[in-house]
Design a protein that fits this description.
The protein is of the alpha/beta class. It is 33% helix and 23% strand. Strand 19 (364-368) and strand 20 (373-375) form a beta hairpin. The two termini are 24 Å apart. The structure holds cytidine-5'-triphosphate.
């Protein structure tokens, strides 16, 4: 049975020259068994007519916020409630701005605010509009909120320019909708550790490291998008907790270990990106230690190794570590892989430009326990997260 069978899809069509291509999308979705409610914006109606979509979907086409097709039901609330996906294709720069700002001044934008359905957006516009910082900022806002973008392709545009802005093709858009309806990590429970830990010296001082948490947060966010149940155990960071993940905030390595053990029984995969302080002060001063002329020696004692502790009682879980190294990258990573009883270690040379702490990018190598090795080029932490989850998915389904 097709994944679209019996699903309710709201298809928002906005005023782009590519609006005619939405007829093909509506047709393919309908043929695949979905119930498609098409909403045309006022501008879209300059390019396409209701008649086309009504004939294709064999359902009423909606244009007006004050239409009430079913008795006593407020149309938009009813449609919003039962939708499985809200697909906006083609999406203009204008609709992206309105969606990002939460404006609800017509039926489509009102539906977007009134629904819990996942939003899939396929933009189409002139290259300059697409690349405009305002548009790109709206894309980032919507993306961070969980919308799935089907990015425009490059090609010859209606205005004669050549560049990015062409509506993605129908199969690519359908694939994205399918992915939302049937998320690849559905049913998989993932624990992610992220950020630094802080080990207090006194009431105002601590030992820590410059980890920003970006890599772990990107993995947690991406895993949520792919349908996993995610617990993020995080040390102190400046990042927003990822929507849809259960986030547990901790300060010290010991607190991080306890938080991980609390959920460990229920998880299938652990991805440890946290830069855990290996040592903590043996004694913590009460209050603030006043300065003096004498030397101050702080005695440090080892912290628990969280990942190794989890590795000792691994069961059938998949355990992934990150190795932050400044020398002998692969040998050190390989050693940690064995020592902590991991399935995979992501080796990361933090001394290289564009890699490691506080950057938005990373250049990493995957080292598997079975000896397989994959070197990835420099890419965004988000892409590293995607590649990592893709690789884990294969292993999970092999089991
Ligand atoms: N890790 C952990 N608990 C620790 C130290 C590390 O869970 N106390 C995890 C990290 O989250 C990472 C992996 O172990 O996934 C490797 O961390 P890293 O700091 O690279 O190595 P260490 O084991 O601390 O060894 P070293 O500092 O000597 O390189």
């Amino acid at each position: 049975m097709s994944v679209f069978e019996g699903k309710h899809i709201l298809l928002g069509v906005t005023g782009s020259i590519a609006a005619y291509k939405a007829a093909d999308i509506a047709s393919k979705l309908t043929q695949a068994g979905a119930e498609v409610d098409v909403v045309l914006t006022e501008h879209a109606r300059h390019f396409v007519t209701e008649v086309t979509f009504r004939a294709i979907t064999r359902r009423p086409v909606l244009t007006d916020l004050f239409d009430e097709p079913e008795e006593r039901q407020i149309a938009h609330i009813h449609l919003a409630k039962r939708a499985d996906v809200l697909l906006v294709a083609p999406a203009t720069a204008n609709i992206l701005a309105k969606l990002a700002a939460g404006i609800a001044d017509d039926l489509l934008t009102t539906l977007a605010l009134a629904t819990h359905a996942r939003l899939v957006i396929a933009p189409a516009m002139n290259t300059v509009m697409w690349e405009h910082p305002a548009t790109q900022s709206n894309v980032r806002t919507l993306d961070a909120r969980g919308a799935l973008f089907v990015y425009p392709a490059e090609g010859m545009l209606a205005c004669g320019d050549v560049g990015a802005g062409k509506l993605a093709d129908t199969p690519t858009i359908l694939q994205a909708v399918e992915r939302v309806l049937n998320p690849p990590l559905k049913g998989v429970r993932v624990l992610v550790t992220a950020g630094p830990t802080e080990e207090p010296i006194d009431a105002v001082r601590h030992i820590s490291n410059p980890s920003s948490g970006k890599m772990g947060y990107a993995i947690a966010e991406e895993a949520v998008r792919q349908g996993a149940g995610v617990t993020l155990v995080t040390g102190p960071t400046l990042l927003e907790p990822p929507a849809g993940a259960q986030t547990v905030s901790v300060r010290t390595a010991q607190e991080m270990l306890e938080a991980c053990l609390q959920v460990y029984d229920d998880v299938d995969v652990v991805i440890a990106t946290a830069a855990v302080s290996d040592y903590r002060p043996a004694e913590v001063w009460h209050g603030k230690r006043k300065k003096g002329d004498e030397e101050w020696t702080i005695r440090l004692v080892p912290n628990p190794d969280i990942l190794r502790t989890l590795g000792e009682r691994k069961g059938s879980r998949i355990l992934v570590g990150f190795a932050a190294e400044t020398a002998d990258l692969l040998q050190n990573a390989q050693h940690k892989l064995c020592e902590k009883n991991l399935d995979l270690i992501v080796a990361n040379d933090v001394s290289q430009e564009g890699s490691g702490f506080r950057t938005d990018t990373n250049r990493v190598t995957f080292l598997w326990a079975d000896g397989t090795q994959t070197n990835l080029p420099l890419m965004s932490k988000r892409e590293v997260a995607q590649r990592l989850l893709e690789a884990l998915r294969e292993r999970l389904f092999q089991r």
